[in-house]
Design brief:
Strand content: 15-25%
CATH class of the largest domain: Alpha Beta
Number of strands: 14
Structural class: alpha/beta
Largest sheet: 7 strands, mixed
CATH superfamily of the largest domain: Crotonobetainyl-coa:carnitine coa-transferase, domain 1
Distance between the termini: 38 Å
Strand order of the largest sheet: 8-7-6-1-2-5-14
Number of helices: 17
CATH architecture of the largest domain: 3-Layer(aba) Sandwich
């Protein structure tokens, strides 16, 4: 097994904002040469997501585009589209997250590109998928969370206002699903010699997050609602207030439930008829939570973490993002890395979440707008005078310095 299994794979990323760039980031982390094509005049929309920024470079853009090379083209021009066609003629993968029909209008749709390059894996991420009555609609994480049912099960409970998941979970999940689909299509290409169409959406990404809740709805005909931090199928499995903060407790099976009663100094609860089984605990959840809450409020979070650990009960604090980034386990797993940036020196970023043979990440920060334009155009076979003409005419842009 190699440390970078997608080495020698060329990916052209015609994607913006989040879902598509997440896919490109995942592929780059596995060693692919990802060429990010940004549209002139301003490039990817996340370049404008500031503050925060570092000396004018958007932190959001740098987070999602680590490990890629970047070129900047006017895709409204014939020459700009021709450059993309030239890149795709030799590419292994193209990733795009435009609305359905956009690539076709540029002459870069799946049917056209499969004739140009039969080995090309075409990955399309949309709001609602290529087919169905909503296929033409654009997609946003907030809207997809609503349609997918996620917002109906997120929040404090009945009667409270809807709450979305704090992270843009459908965007991120769609990008990860797309990278999985691309990897599978590349594996299939080894058998057949031909590329495939990979099609996923924010809606489907949201739906995949509802496995437990959908299991309940499909089996019972009843749609579960929001439970705060609680679990829809097991108890006690939620956050409890302590004397100085909060703690998550995951006593989700019989052994950890009995261990929790010992840790709390209430062994009699293990034999209480209301709580003796998981079904009983779920049926009497309000009473159970009230009983446990009074115990947890009597001591600090650190006290309970030590006590629960001694009994083998899964538990943990509710960390801030800053605390998470500095945690020794985060550091040990190399989930915060430093990479060299063309203007900023070394910048910190989230690291590679899947390790292969223990390898870290390719050392490349997000590109400046047009940082690798000349380099990539020459690799694609454009002569120096052609490159210069495109730069002068504004078809392409190359970063200064």
């Amino acid at each position: 097994m190699t440390s970078f299994p997608l080495r020698d794979v060329r990916v052209v990323e015609l994607a913006h904002i989040m879902a598509g760039p997440v896919c490109g980031l995942m592929l780059a982390d596995m060693g692919a040469d990802v060429i990010k094509v940004e549209r002139l005049p301003k490039g990817d929309g996340t370049r404008g997501f500031a503050p925060p920024s570092l000396d004018g470079e958007s932190a959001a853009f740098m987070m999602l585009n680590r490990g890629k090379r970047g070129i900047a083209l006017d895709l409204r021009s014939r020459d700009g589209v021709e450059v993309v066609r030239r890149l795709l003629a030799d590419a292994d993968v193209v990733v795009e997250n435009f609305r359905v029909g956009t690539m076709e209008r540029m002459g870069l749709g799946w049917e056209t590109l499969r004739e140009l390059n039969p080995r090309l894996v075409y990955c399309q991420i949309t709001g609602f998928g290529r087919t169905g009555p909503m296929s033409a609609q654009g997609g946003f994480d907030l809207i997809a969370q609503g349609y997918s049912g996620l917002m109906s099960v997120t929040g404090e409970g009945p009667g409270r206002e809807p709450v979305k998941v704090g992270a843009p979970v459908t965007d991120i999940t769609a990008g990860i699903l797309a990278a999985f689909g691309v990897s599978a299509a590349l594996f299939e290409r080894e058998r057949t010699g031909r590329g495939s169409l990979v099609d996923t959406s924010l809606l489907e990404a949201g739906i995949t997050q509802t496995y437990w809740q959908s299991a309940i709805a499909l089996a019972s005909g009843v749609s579960p609602g929001a439970l705060g931090s609680a679990h829809p199928l097991a108890a006690p499995y939620q956050a409890f207030r302590t004397a100085d903060g909060w703690i998550n407790v995951g006593a989700s099976n019989q052994a950890t439930w009995v261990a929790l009663t010992r840790a709390l100094g209430t062994p009699e609860l293990a034999d209480d008829a209301r709580f003796v089984s998981n079904s009983g605990r779920m049926h009497n959840l309000d009473v159970l939570v009230d009983v446990l809450a009074r115990r947890f409020e009597g001591h600090t979070t650190d006290h309970w973490l030590a006590t629960l650990a001694a009994e083998g009960v899964p538990a943990g604090p509710i960390a801030s993002v800053g605390e998470m980034l500095e945690h020794p386990q985060t550091v040990a797993r190399e989930m915060v890395v430093e990479v060299p940036h063309a203007r900023l020196g070394r910048v910190r970023s989230i690291g590679r979440p899947v390790k292969v043979d223990g390898a870290g990440i390719a050392a490349r920060a997000a590109p400046l707008l047009g940082e690798h334009t000349g380099e990539v155009l020459r690799e694609a076979g454009f002569a120096d005078d052609e490159v210069l003409r495109m730069l002068v005419e504004g078809v392409a842009l190359e970063a200064e310095g």
